[in-house]
């Protein structure tokens, strides 16, 4: 009777939310708050003489919705994983910087552009050691020869290949003072780019932390997490500096 009175004072498109307690069929011992949308459908049929039906539409559990809205977005573990991956790339690049000897690994950082995007040099070629000062690069697709040549020259590893038949001959420069200085500059640039990426990862973390603060994260807890984030980036920046110092000494011959 109460529901009829509600509907009798509304038009047929009226939708009224009702909140009440309802046991879930899957768990008879559980009672939670549910919300239903109550609406009155138009009568069917040609004559329209039949009465409209009251339809109950159930929304998601209100408590679940509120819980999802309050979920934390900042995750220190995720930030740590990002920074670890960034540092790993630096160490991999430094590993390819061998001084004074022909080693295929010195070409690991070379990426070759092509019509479908780009690909690592090793996927498009076969690289062998001809002698202690020379690498031979056999290109699988002869039409890519000039593109591969240009990619090696632009890779900032101080190598100048020469087209030799269907492949490339890559002389490894003798170790001179000038060459060592160039390689140290390359290593320094790699270190600086790595630090930039680490700072960007920190900024992303701070943005997530700011969102959590707006969603009700206590200020003292937010400050603690921010401090932990700063300690984390300080740790990784120090590892970058240590790696550069070690590589610089190696290049200098110290």
Automatic annotation (TrEMBL):
The keyword Protein biosynthesis applies. Residues 90-251 form the Ribosome recycling factor domain. Pfam families: RRF. It comes from the Eukaryota. GO terms for cellular component: mitochondrion. One of its GO terms (biological process) is translation. Keywords: Protein biosynthesis. The keyword Protein biosynthesis applies. InterPro entries: Ribosome_recyc_fac, Ribosome_recyc_fac_dom, RRF_sf. Necessary for protein synthesis in mitochondria. Functions as a ribosome recycling factor in mitochondria. Belongs to the RRF family. This is 1564_t:CDS:1.
């Amino acid at each position: 009777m109460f529901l009829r009175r509600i509907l009798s004072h509304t038009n047929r498109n009226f939708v009224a939310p009702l909140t009440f307690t309802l046991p879930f069929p899957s768990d008879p011992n559980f009672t939670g708050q549910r919300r239903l949308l109550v609406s009155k459908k138009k009568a069917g049929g040609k004559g329209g003489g039949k009465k409209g039906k009251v339809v109950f539409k159930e929304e998601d559990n209100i408590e679940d919705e509120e819980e999802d809205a309050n979920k934390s977005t900042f995750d220190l573990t995720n930030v740590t994983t990002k920074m670890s991956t960034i540092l790993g790339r630096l160490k991999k690049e430094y590993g390819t910087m061998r001084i004074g000897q022909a080693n295929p690994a010195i070409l690991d950082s070379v990426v070759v552009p092509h019509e479908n995007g780009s690909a690592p040099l090793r996927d498009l070629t076969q690289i062998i050691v001809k002698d202690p000062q020379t690498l031979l690069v056999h290109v699988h697709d002869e039409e890519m020869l000039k593109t591969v040549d240009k990619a090696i020259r632009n890779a900032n590893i101080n190598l100048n290949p020469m087209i030799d038949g269907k492949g490339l001959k890559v002389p490894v420069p003798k170790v001179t003072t000038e060459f060592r200085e160039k390689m140290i500059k390359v290593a320094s640039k790699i270190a600086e780019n790595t630090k930039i990426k680490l700072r960007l990862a920190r900024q992303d973390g701070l943005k997530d932390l700011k969102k959590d603060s707006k969603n009700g994260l206590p200020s003292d807890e937010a400050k603690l997490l921010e401090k932990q984030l700063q300690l984390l980036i300080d740790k990784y920046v120090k590892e970058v500096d240590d790696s550069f110092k070690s590589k610089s000494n190696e290049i200098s011959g110290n």
